[in-house]
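Subject: Protein entry, chain in single-letter code together with its fold tokens

Area: Proteins and the way their chains fold up in space.

Attached in line: The record itself begins immediately under this heading.
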Amino acid sequence: GLFIYAATVCRFAREGGSLAGERLARLISTERLPARAGTELDRMYMTVLEYSLNTKLDPGEMARTQELFRRVAGSVVVLFDALSPASLAMLLGEPKETIASPLGSLHSLLDVPEEEGRLIRLLHPSFREFLLDPQRCAITDFYIDGKEAHKLLFECCLRIMASHLRQDMCDLRRPGTRVGDISRSQVNEKVPFAVHYACRYWVGHLERSDIDPQEHCGIADFLATRFLFWLEALALIGRLADGVAMIRILETRLHRTEKSPGLGAVVYDAKQLLLSHSSIIGEAPLQVYSSALVFSPEASIIRRLYMAQVPEWIVRAPALSEDWSGHLQTLSHPSVVRAVTVSPDGRLIVSGSDDNTVRVWDAVTGAERCVLKGHSSWVNAVAILPDGRLIVSGSRDNTVRVWDAVTDAERRVLKGHSGAVSAVAISPDGRLIVSGSDDNTVRVWDAVTGAERRVLKGNSSSVSAVAISPDGRLIVSGSRDNTVRVWDAATSAENNVLQVGAVLRYLSFSSCGKHLVTDRGVFQLPSSDCRCSRNVSATKSWITHDGKDLLYLHPDYQDSFGFLSDIILVFVGRISHALQLKLP
């Protein structure tokens, strides 16, 4: 606090020129306020601000000056990203000369650049905290109501988007033009930074204001007339994933009140369209007017609102389903995807592919977070640590690779298998990595050092799945020899062999550690004394419970199912449904 105080006082006095002494005297002689944390700093801020307003103005001019201060200073302290004076003026809808005066009077408190394009910045965050706190900013002429400041910027964002967004903003004309083929200078020229800012943050300002979106007609109008233009602009500036997050926030706010189901339906439909087509819109922005509309359901509200934007060379749209399915997004590798996992908190999706890469995706927005490169052949298996810090991948190149999920760096390459690695798992504490391979072995690795701890032998065919118990004491492996083997993690002893009669593609422990959950059923461990026994499995045509036939599967559903848990069967392929059981 002392350094901030001294630096601000020096700037304030220096800018007074020949009146520097008078300014210092004013600061020193100001009557002391009641002692409390921050008082000296607050007193100094108020003294500097008093000098920023010309008290000799007539009442009308004074009111306009105070209004400008609130618009300009209030915007600067609540902006989500710094703007240049020109961009701020454009966003606020004021001439640059008009905002120059309040900015110029605040040089002691703000870094106001003279060079074109440089950004306005607070000299210290404490000035923001001071202006937004009515207890600290005792002079009401200077107090900034945060909600009102966000409301102003929300309105400004809607206004500038309404006036600047249009179809084909960069005059590309070719609907298949890729974002990577458009120069940044062209994008910056057609999407000025003030518009860029509005596109990214209008929902953020709405969220922090006291505006009820149900009662603001501007939101419905924006969705009905500018929504696709907004998606195009976000794609051009590389921020389409922000759009997904913003629409989700808007949908959440609408659900809290549900006063206007009509607006809620539009927002839901907008979210579905964006999630379903974000991949191609992000790659080729103009596809938002062709592919995204043509391949959306016939009942889509956004499709009906924007069909006039469909290019004339599309003379007839295909007949599609009436409404949106449960399918939200498609996340694409350029080649076959062989492995997928989701982080325990549901925020990340990790996938491995025949393109030799591991990709990390934002599960909420669908945005590709990073591409992990290093394998020289197919990636067959992926796993992620419960806290999301480590990612492990197994490949046909016979290696296991450990990646830092935060920095995207390759931490270690684990070598020892003589065949393709087909399965990987990480212990809950992140200390052990287990891998299964076409060399018929299971190997246990130290996740920190990369050292090979143990080699577990016993399978007579390749290992297709591995898992570690919640307490880290047991390791299980599923093999193409139709068995599940249970190993002691400390001694490497083989405790049990379960004859499951099928090759398991998925294998994990239940939360209690007493059952094995697989894609062919749920099996109780032989040594378990758990009373909630759920030995549910399936043959080709029957679901069985404790070894007895329970439910016959119609031929249309055979060979197309997998277990999501011990009570839910998911049917995939030609027929996509779920069957839930309530077992005795």
The longest strand covers residues 337-342. The two ends are 67 Å apart (CA to CA). Confidence is low (pLDDT under 50) at residues 31-37, 566-576.
